[in-house]
Amino acid sequence: MPPTVxxxxxxxxxxxFVLGLVFSPHPSQAGGLYTTEFGxxxxxxxxxxxxxxxxxxxxAWHNPAGMTRISDxxxxxxxxxxxxxxxFDADSNTPVAGGDGGQAGLATPIANTSxxxxxxxxxxxxxxxxxxxxxxxxxxxxxxxxxxxxxSKLLTLTGMPSLAVKLGPWLSFGAGLQIxxxxxxxxxxxxxxxxxxxxxxxxxxxxxxxxxxxxxxxxEGSRLGVRYQSKTNFEFDGDLEISGxxxxxxxxxxxxxxxxxxxxxxxxxxxxxxxxxxxxxxxWEDWGGxxxxxxxxxxxxxxxxxxxxKDTYKLAGGFHYRPSKPWLLMTGFAYDSSPVDDKDRTADxxxxxxxxxxxxxxxxxxxxxxxxxxxxxxxAGDAKIDNDRTLKGEFRRNEIFFIALNAxxxx
Length: 411
What we know:
This protein is mainly β. The chain has one domain: Outer membrane protein transport protein (OMPP1/FadL/TodX) (Porin). 6% of the residues lie in helices and 55% in strands. It has 4 helices and 20 strands. A 14-stranded antiparallel beta barrel has the order 1-2-3-5-6-7-8-11-12-15-16-17-18-20. The radius of gyration is 22 Å and the shape is elongated.
């Protein structure tokens, strides 16, 4: 269950619609972080230095400027599985009685493809296909936090054609156009009325963004990468449906606007000697700017839902170790800051600060084929929830396991 965009807008609107109340600020918890688990070799170092490595076709996703280092035509494919372990523990004084929701996490398969084609030695064409964000949670309908969420599913898929040019022996630029499809499929909660009606919202949209990057090569084994990611604005056009209670059977069209924020990522790659290389990354994501308010509307009206989101940052470091010529071993660690305080967090996506521990390996099968695999463990914190109206407690288990395989072909 990769970290994703917030779902509070759906909860708040549902309460407003069912009870005829004014929008009230009880913001949701969401990761506030873009997905970093793509299954590429950079996953084996917790994404440290991903915008600077530029050793295979996956650079078309991480930083298109790095494509100038790729020769011939290269294709990378990845497959993997995200396995969340998410279990809540309600406080004794939680406002709504109910169970703990059991195992709320839903296992999610992932796949990613990147292609780089050499038009000339200094001009490269690329394409990448993968997911920027996604979620899968199911607490059931009887748990203590059912008025915040019972089920939430968000799917996204992004395709990115890109172009890179080498301007000199040490400087390259690249840019890509991102075409994204998003689907809410669906989001559910229980309304706070005597019958506890089920409120469900779905929707889909196409959205567009871009990324630009630069690569500075100090030497063959030392380089700095920088990438800027633009905002991507989804306007989910769908339906809000209510079942059970006096309003059961009601269905209206809805429009929910959710914006993935701009971000800046800086990465460094340096070969210490023939066996060891050091990788590092720092990034900033403008979640406070993009999700200060969330517009939501139906035919009967709409409003701006206030959030209390903060910008987030990431720090990551890792090492490559080459014990022999065909093998490359790697490990890394990353820290992601929390996008939300305890009093503003809800159960849509229980992410606090995140700690990522990663290992991986690459094997040069032949001159034109490289195989790899990686494993990552994510500690998503206790994600304490302190909402006087709906839910109090914390997650006794809040972790994600990720395993993936990858292959890079040269044609």
